């Protein structure tokens, strides 16, 4: 069977065709680079994604710190990961790269902060 | 205890009934059962009275006329209340027009429309100064091309003269080009007394001046019933409580027919004439120094182009009768026709300059043939004593607002003595606009108040200081649109794309309103569903 | 009011402004001032929390704030003077920059000005979408700022108009936060954003994308209750009879970015009707003496990596201008031929290698971008696969093929 997909690794968005047999990938054509080939293979076996979201920051100059996953997780785990992210409450200050949830749900990916948030100096939340 | 006849002893037994009587009177006549209630405007705590103290006058509707009535009545020792169904003043017809202060030549001589318009026009310089609002006496051109047009203009000039308009003159093509370059027309009537005003600021200023002088405003209080009591006072019902009052003034605009019926004055046929408008970028304002109309017909003013005091250009209105007085949607077809029609007069209209569009509905009193009638400013001593009924206040209601208000005062004053307040202050101060000041004044403002140095709205250069002043307005309005009209923030090219988030946060922080309670403009126009993370 | 002299004033502390400042310093220019209106620098990147930034520049897939932080840190290390909470309210043709901050009104007299103000979003009013005026209609950038910076959720049942990248990113963002995104409608017969975003923002979440559709009515007296959607014909006009109602409480508009050139107009800078940004030459110099432009305010980019690169090139030209007092004239005009929507620069000298950025006006497949001068094809750059208007395309034109006279045309040949 031939499966066609758009690669999401970089903005080129190459159209990649994966030949599958019994649902397993056999060959990959059309990828513009090695990363694309790997992506296409993985996509056929078990699609994985990274996501970005926000966590609550207490006593910070901003109310939220943006976060993202360090590694992709299987698509069906996206909303369970979101549930974990929603529970987080961080105390300011927050630094870029700070691990917010290590190895979330045992999926091999950390959730890290992607914004610096200093401690609040005034009540204003103007960002 | 020994009792001696003829003498009253201050014993507990004797005093008790007296104390009980005093307490009872206190409870029923002076005390108010207070209920703190959630305000649909958003967490602004409001005291709602189940049965308030009796008002002397309750004004229904705080458009420009209701606000003008409140202001004029606040010159006298009266307890005044204004009941408004929306979360702010000026939400309906008063804020949905082209902001023109009319000359008064378009109305039949001897009518209230003509009389009040000319009176209001003449005094507008003083009005604008007292209320600290922007007003420009730009003059107006009525442009024609054909012999019919010329005849019509000559007739208009005659009418104008009869009504007391000053300085009306016929001008030729070259004068048109001097006054309004690019306008297509062979000749025109020039009305030097016509002008332009910001209708929001005018209404807000009237209301704030009234408030300053003691009038109370009740927003989100739609009148649902009026009952005349045995003592000729009225009980006015709203979903948030009942009010007792000696006088009622019906200035409900689009709702004037409904309120008139509630008062027991039936039979007024109200037709709603809806007009659509386009707002063009401020860049276009430089091309249009004064309002330019085509020669008018009998039913409406014509598709004209009008500059605003802030430099935008308004194209419109068109006119068609509608049944639904709450539908302000602007259809695509109307926008196209407006642009196409007005372009024949002023050929600078381009879609890329559109900023926004809006519509307004005029409440016209019509007879059984559909012929538009004059303003009604009346007291029906038989059907509804102590009620001033204003019906069919459409154009030129903006220009005529204070003259109408004075006639309301006169009608009341003819029926009971009114005592003037010694401390009435006719002058109201608005918010200083940073963007309009020269550099030295700008620097001075910032030194005095650093909040003037924080520009929040980029397109209109509106500062934090102005927005805070607007949020702390004397009427207690807390909607996004309310802050918009008081400062011009969010009215520019990007329509709040840069600043609305900051303005929303400022309103919430200042007034303690949670996200889900902040309103856009109407009673249930909540902007947000809540926080992303709690 | 006194004018403070400065060598270079940069208006905007976003990705373009910061990159230009750092490059100027590296090229030896000391007296640099960056003026930024927000509380922190970083520009629009502050609210773009999704990843995909920096793949070319850093070889990593960073979020917007992380990408911005790299440049903020570099600017900090280089000791760049970046004034935040400072709004420039005018730029004169003589390069007098007037700015407002809590400290007061200040005027700078600059030898060179770099315009780096970014974009604003096209609004509903500008589109003249008919209908009522309820709460619940937001442009995508505004919704993104509310969600990511102000911790405010804007709605539950969402319809999105416009398949630009921002619209698709917001489709995913809102879905992750529990909203029900019903559909994305796009007026063109092809998507406006990158194919990867169709996959990872729409297909992943089962959000349908309808091409050749647009919103023709907005309903709701107080809060949005629904929209009317119609199919459009090849001239993008709604087809009567194809109307369908979509109940929703939120309409997100992702219908175009407009370079924010209001200050530029005041400075006497001529704008290009195709890009809505300044007309510039290969030195990123505008028609006004000493005024340069870079980043989204010059033309809308699709990748921030390229914004940084362009800003650095601009800074290189500005450094040369400051040191030598002038730059060579650029008299050869570049025009848009068949299939090309816009090009930057619009003028070149013909004496240097030059890189032209362009956008095609409609999608092509397996075509070639051609540069023509004096009737001859001097460059033919083949492109395999899809080339669509959403991507910025680059064509290198080496000096060796350029004649010193004769205007150029860029077109698509398939």
Describe the fold and architecture.
The complex is a heterotrimer of chains A (127), B (534) and C (414). Chain A has two domains: 2-45, no CATH class; 52-113, CPE0013-like (CPE0013-like fold), CATH 3.10.530. In chain A, 17% of the residues lie in helices and 35% in strands. Chain A contains two helices and ten strands, in the order βββαββββαβββ. In chain A, a hairpin with a 2-residue loop joins strand 2 (15-21) and strand 3 (24-29). The longest helix of chain A has 12 residues, at 34-45. Chain B has 534 residues and is of the alpha+beta class. Chain B has a domain at 434-517: Arc Repressor Mutant, subunit A. Helix content of chain B is 30%, strand content 22%. Chain B has helices at 12-30, 64-73, 112-122, 124-131, 147-163, 173-179, 199-212, 256-262, 332-343, 397-413, 439-448, 464-471, 480-487, 500-511; strands at 34-37, 46-49, 55-60, 80-83, 100-101, 135-136, 140-144, 169-172, 187-191, 195-197, 216-218, 225-228, 234-238, 241-250, 270-280, 292-294, 304-307, 313-316, 320-322, 354-365, 376-380, 384-391, 455-457, 462-463, 530-531. In chain B, strands 3, 4, 11, 12, 13, 14, 21 and 22 form an eight-stranded mixed beta sheet that branches. In chain B, strands 15, 17, 18, 19 and 20 form a five-stranded antiparallel beta sheet that branches. A four-stranded mixed beta sheet of chain B has the order 8-9-7-16. Residues 28-50 of chain B have low confidence and may be disordered. Chain C has helices at residues 15-26, 64-77, 124-127, 140-148, 165-176, 195-202, 262-266, 304-324; strands spanning 3-11, 32-35, 51-53, 62-63, 81-83, 87-91, 96-101, 104-115, 119-121, 137-139, 152-153, 157-161, 180-186, 209-211, 213-219, 226-231, 244-247, 250-253, 257-259, 291-293, 332-336, 340-344, 347-348, 354-360, 364-373, 376-387, 393-397, 408-413. In chain C, helix 1 packs parallel to helix 2 (64-77), helix 4 runs parallel beside helix 5 and helix 5 runs parallel beside helix 6 (195-202). Chains in contact: A-B, A-C, B-C. The interface between B and C is large, with 59 and 50 residues.
